[in-house]
Predict the structure.
Amino acid sequence: MPIYDDEGGIIALEGIARDVTERKRSEVAMLEARERVARAERMASLGSMAAGIAHEINQPLNSIKVNADSLIYLDRHNAAVDSKEMMEYIRDISRQAVRIDEIIKHTRSFVRPDAAGKKRPCDLNQAVESVLSFIGTQLSAHQIALAKELQAGLPLIEAQSIHLEEVIINLLVNAMQALDRVERANKQIFCRTYQAAGGIALEVGDNGPGIDEKIREKIFEPFFSSNSSGENMGLGLCIVHSIISSYNGKISFSTNSAGDTVFKVEFPLAEPADAFGKDLT
C-alpha cells in the first residue's frame, strides 16, 4: 500500500506480511504422514493378493522350467534339434522372463507410487485389467466368480494410474473379505465401467452379507473395519474416499435386503488434449 507526500509522490510502501513457514511445514508433514499410512495399507492389500501374485509368477516360471528341461533332455540324449526349434525354446524362455519382470515392477510401483504425483490421462479399463491380472487368481482361490463388464472406448481420466489401481484393489479386496464371511455356494463379484453424465463410473459389487445400517455412516472413517479377524487396518475405504475426493470424484454405495452391495465411483473426465501442455496460440 503506497504512502504519498503532500505533492502526491510515493514516499513509502506499507504492507502486512504473514510468516506461513510453520503452516507449510505442517502441511508437508501431514502429506508425508498420509503417504506413510497409505503405503501401509497398500502393503496390507498386497498381503491379500499374495496368493494371486505367486500364481502369476509361477506360471511363467513353470514355462521356463519346461523349456529348459526339454533342452537338457535333448542334449542328454544327443538328439538332433533344428536351429529354428531351438530358437523357439529360447524365445519363449525370454518372453516368460519378461513377464516375471513386469509382475515384479508392477508390484514395486504399487508399493512405491510416482513420487512426483503427476496426473496424466489414464484409461480406467486398463487399470481394471491390470488389477485383475493380479487379484483374479485370488478371487478364484476364494471360490468367488468374477463378472466383468467394461464399456469399450471410455474417455480418459486425469489421474495417476497407480491411484486408480489402488481404488480398484481396495474395493475388490473389501468385497472378497465380505464374501469370506458368508457360507454361500454362488459367491459373486462384478466389476463394471461405463460412461456417466459428466464423467465415467466404476461399480464394484458383491452378493455378500451387505452393510449393516448401524455402520453405514462409518465405513469411510479411518481405522474402522467391520471385519473382526484383524486382516486389515480399516484404512482401505478411507483411502479410496481420499483418492477419489482428490480427483474431484465421488463415491457412494447401496445395499439391499438380499445382501447385494454395490460401490459406485464417479470420476470427472480428463481435460482436452490442449490442457495437457499444448499451446493453443
In short: The longest strand covers residues 187-196. The chain has five helices and nine strands.
